[in-house]
Amino acid sequence: MIEVKNIKKGFGERTVLNGVSVTMQAGKCNLIIGASGSGKTVFMKLMVGLMVPDQGEICYDEKDFNKLNNEEKKEIRQQIGMLFQGSALFDSLTVEQNIMFPLNMFTKDTYAQKLKRVNEVLERVRLKDVNRKFPAELSGGMKKRVGIARAIVLNPKYLFVDEPNSGLDPQTSLVIDKLVQELTLEYNITTVVNTHDMNSVMEIGDHIIFMYQGKKEWEGSNKEIIFNKNERLNEFIFASEFLKDAKDMRMLEQTGKIDNNRDMDKLIG
Amino acid sequence: MTLFTEFGRYLLMLKGMFSKPENMKMYWKELMHQCNEIGIGSLGIVIIISFFMGAVSALQTAYQLVSPVIPMSTVAQIVRDTVILEFAPTLVCIVLAGVVGSKIASELGNMRVSEQIDALEIMGINTRAYLVLPKIMASIIVIPLLVVLSAALGIYGGQLASTTAGILSPSQYETGLLQYFQPYNVFFALVKAYTFSFLISSIPAYYGYHVEGGALEIGRASTKSVVVSCVSILGADYVLAAILLH
Question: What CA–CA distance (Å, rounded) separates A155 from A78?
Fold first, then answer.
């Protein structure tokens, strides 16, 4: 389990995170949402140990990550898989070599065993005949899937996903979201997703944390988000008329009535 | 950022390179890869520069030796000493600062900007040890070898140019090469080569590793690393000459 306790982080005079506390639910998709500049990326970087907080604790199974020695940190890091916004595949290595890299570094398996594992994860992310291709030869969606394959190749306990849908078309975004959700359930991984994408929120958001100006503004599930009364969250998540309509439709479906402040006559008229 | 802060970060990067490797085999593979990239990758330019450097040095020395009391075989002696003492270690390392230095800075800078370094860190790999140390070690292994090759080719280039131009016969050139030869000069050249090879790999690695931003910053880091490496080479050249030649 990942617990974040009263975390603060600033750069110079600017405070980016101001006392955020949250517990990531084990075996579920935890989504961090918020506008650009709300501190989501810094929050994720702090959680994976790429940055050190000014104050507060990040606990993996009740151990404060930043108080561990290098060897203990390494042990935890080997239980973490991460998919980066730009996939972060190694340019000079083929897809097969990219996915095999963590296995080469941390296991003593034979080449045949490693290749078998690589093919297993490639099949799991539904990629075929790409072993010998270089990242430059792949589409954005394929790169993301290779990134996921590399992230899960060592059977991680925690999966961090930064902006999985950026630069992807809506259909491919859904495929990636579905994949992240399936893997979370299948391997019982604690997944943390950093996203702006409202489809992701509604589809895979078992546990949603809404960040606003460096603070946790709202926390709940994708079922609760429809009925939430938080103005800032509603402004952010149901920003367009289309999304407001979708919210109303979902509300009507679930409760038989629409509870909103919109002037429906004006909209229809 | 002040010079002292930068120097402090540079020292911290060097200190951070030393940790127990996660997998020795992978580090060895990376070291061999870097030896190939830096050594074989720079071989062509080193051969061309060294040969012409020796040839031009022979012709210009002969042009300046107008006194009838100085034997023409002295040309070979001067070419030998200038090539060993200065041209092979300093000039070649300045060229390599451009070739190897910009490559190291842009490679690491690109890895930083595209989050590849972060990806390695999250896997639990010490990126300073895995990415920076092999580059510095490979440079320290390979560049002195290139300097020795450069010295040999420079001297040969001088011989070819002076005999082709009819300044000296091959035997006169060989006689000149053996006149007043001091093996200490070779030691001095190697000390310079080891020092410069450390500078031209560690300085670009520092600038590349700490890039923040995008493509523009990678370009800036690459240029800055070459400039700082060249200035450092010249400074170290003077200090080593002052210490070791007196």
Answer: 9
